[in-house]
# Entry
Amino acid sequence: MKITILGSGTSTGIPMIGCHCEVCSSSNPKNKRLRTSAFLESGDARILIDCSTDLRQQALAYHIERIDAVFLTHSHADHVAGIDDLRIYNFRQGGKIKFFGAPDILNDVRRRFDYCFDPPQTGGGVPQLELIPVQNSFEFMGISVTPLPVLHGTLPILGYRFNDFSYITDASKIPEETMEKLRGARVLILNALRKKPHSTHFSIDEAVEAARRIQPEQTYLVHMAHQVEHEATNRALPPEIQLAYDGQVINL
Ligand SMILES: [Zn+2]
Ligand SMILES: [Zn+2]
Ligand SMILES: [Zn+2]
# Structure
């Protein structure tokens, strides 16, 4: 299994428009963060996790030429606003793209992007998506998939476990039942916004504490804000818990 970090930034993207702080003006590419998303390749399966605002740029940069399925964590704009760029894969592949998510979250997608599901006319081209609500574990293209319910403030959203790889973004609390489902995962991607606590996202300290309880071999942090400088933060973190960066490839 190969995972490519397509984006590791919070909703604003880093640099943030108009900001001249140390991180936003840094020349280190690891301090430049597109909106959080990842691409998973396993056997023949090509899976996009969230379709971020920056999907087009990410697909071009990392040569994403096929998408069999999208696994959506939640319907906030930074995770779903790239939905229109999925059209290109409909053109290329023919047929609908499977679009997995929690039932409530998919209802929200259907409402926000109603033109995709009830198009007044097909001439302009709209994303052709097959919405598939998920709740329990299932098999997809040879991968064992387990939805991981977590809380984003008070909003219930999903992470996903794919075999021994787990992906959680935008969480501020991981319920005990989900902790059980994470046991034995070798690699974990987990969100960490900044040093200072936040009402709807884990801080770095909270993410480290969660990672220590889950105990994967390696944890990569994503969804960072512009207060987080890559090199200094990583030096202060233990080697088994490190910030991810855009373009990073993880093999397992
Ligand atoms: Zn987000
Ligand atoms: Zn800044
Ligand atoms: Zn969110």
Summary: Residues 74, 76, 152, 170 surround zinc ion (ligand 3) (CB under 6 Å). Residues 149 and 158 are 5 Å apart (CA to CA).
